[in-house]
Specification:
It is a single chain. The chain is mainly alpha-helical and 137 residues long. It has two domains: 54 residues, no CATH class; 61 residues, no CATH class. Helix content is 36%, strand content 6%. The chain has four helices and four strands, in the order H-H-H-E-E-E-E-H. A two-stranded antiparallel ribbon has the order 1-2. It has a two-stranded antiparallel sheet with strand order 3-4. The protein is elongated. Bound molecules: zinc ion. Zinc ion binds next to strand 4 and helix 4.
């Protein structure tokens, strides 16, 4: 979903004290939207409601939280890993042993998992995850 500046955002967060100021009809409409989203999530096999931690970017510790999110691949532009289906900030082309997945890219976690598997079963080391890895190794 893009905001008015055309920037893509992953979440919409509403402050309850703001929602409480809506009219009765607006609250009912918002309730219907929430129910429709829950139904979609259930059909997709997801939990109907997630709980998130939310901080204001004005907080003095926001940069520390952003660093933690970056460390875990949850900050910035995200792409979906073709292996695990998770949205990740860092993806790279897959390694030569697992190359063809419709041109999809692989995340650090899947790479590290595969690295251990191939070390154990073939004795081959595909090397550490390199987010700039453009070609298969
Ligand atoms: Zn993955």
């Amino acid at each position: 979903m893009a905001n008015t500046a055309g920037i893509e955002h992953k979440f919409v967060v509403m402050k309850i004290s703001d929602v409480e100021q809506l009219t009765h009809h607006e609250k009912v409409a918002l309730g219907h939207i929430g129910e429709a989203i829950q139904e979609i999530r259930i059909k997709q096999g997801k939990s109907p409601v997630n709980q998130y931690l939310v901080i204001n970017t004005d907080e003095p510790y926001a940069d520390e939280v952003i660093d933690i999110l970056k460390h875990h691949g949850h900050w910035g532009m995200v792409e979906t890993c073709a292996w695990c289906g998770e949205d990740r900030e860092e993806l790279r082309n897959p390694h030569i042993f697992d190359y063809d997945r419709n041109g999809g890219k692989m995340c650090r976690y899947c790479w590290d998992h595969d690295r251990e598997v191939y070390k154990g079963s073939y004795g081959e080391d595909i090397g550490p995850f390199d987010p700039k890895g453009e070609t298969a190794q």
